[in-house]
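Sequence in, structure out.
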Amino acid sequence: RAVAPKVWNVFCLDNGITWMIGLDGECFRLCDDDPLNTCEELPYGQESFLDISRIVLDKHGNEWILSHKGLYRYGHADKTSSLHFVMAEVFDHGVWFVNSLTQTAFYDENKATFNYRERLDSGSRFRISLRQNDSILLVCTSKGVYQNNTKEGSFKKISDEDWQYIYVDTQGNYWGVRENYDIVRLSADRSE
């Protein structure tokens, strides 16, 4: 008699696919239309439910698995990267990835290429990101806040502060929360 795995996390994608992550790192992929007959366990070699950070679907239907052992793309035998990415943000033109040490990478959907990009401040830690529009991604690190133009691949430091959270209001002002819970506003013209 088979024992059903205990499921820790579920990722429901817009393409009708659901991923379930078991407590022991099992990784199951199933089709929502016929879950009993389409469930497959995938050998991504995870040891714990904590090993899978996130699963995202890009605009071209690629399913990206962000894990401690690397970055995988469903349907491809090899890892795309050995880095442990903790954030993925899907844009019309591609997917941006950031790992906990602020190494960035970009998958260009039009060229089907994966490229590592500049690392932000050396020794900084990734905190959180916020997508502002289809070309701007705000990235908060332990050594500052960056505005990333995803179409150009450029980064511009807009604050030296360590923000734990970031929000954008309707006037374009950035609001940050510091580690000591103080709230800071960076105006639309980027002056504090």
